[in-house]
Amino acid sequence: MVDYLDKLDNAKKSLQIADHMLNITHNVVNDPKLLLLVLKKLFSALNNTISAILYYELYYKKIPPFQESFSEMFNIFKMRAFRRYNLNTSYIELIQDVHSTLKEQKEGPVSFARKGSYVICSSDYKIKVLSKDSLKLYIEKTKVFIRDAESMIT
Question: 3-153: what CATH class?
Answer without folding.
Answer: mainly alpha
